[in-house]
Amino acid sequence: MAALTQFAGCMRAHGVPVPDPNAQGQIAGSTQLEQQYRNTPQGQAAANACQSYLQRAVTQLTPANTAQFVHAQLLFARCLRAHGVNAPDPTPSGEIQLNAQAVNKSSPQFQRAAGACQHLTQRVPHVAIGG
To answer: How many helices (H) does the chain have, and how many strands (E)?
Structure first.
């Protein structure tokens, strides 16, 4: 969890208000922060600068936690689709790669869908900020 704490500190140092992870290794509000900053110059610069911490944090997940995360992401993608968002299934690492041309993360439809589905990933050990 040290790497995830370092990641959060790095993001804050680059102007993105990421809180430290909780005892379960989760960053509160990570979905909202990602939606708010992912496609901004500030968010992209911070994610690039802090990527090494994020990669170390991901390698600290246990195989069981990783499997749990990938499954939660699959449920999240299915939920997004059920709410009208064209989201693909996650990659084997659990990343949902949304096509920026096909999915407008700022749209009211996406915001509603993400809000309705975020409960599926909130209690799962994960790292979810960055590019």
So the answer is: 5, 0
The neighbour count for residue 48, using CB atoms within 10 Å, is 12
| Cα–Cα dist 75/93, whole Å | 14
CA-to-CA distance for 19 and 36, rounded, in angstroms? Answer: 15
pLDDT at 126 over 60: no
- As for how many domains the chain has, the answer is 1
Kindly tell me if the per-residue pLDDT of 69 is higher than 50: yes
For residues 88 and 91, what is the distance between their CA atoms, to the nearest angstrom?
9
CA distance 91 to 125: 17
Handedness of CA 13, 106, 58, 18 (dihedral sign): positive
Round to whole Å and give the CA distance between 111 and 48: 25
pTM to 2 decimal places: 0.56
Specify the DSSP element, H or E, that contains 87.
none
Domain extent for 11: 2-120
Asked whether residue 128 is domain-assigned, the answer is no
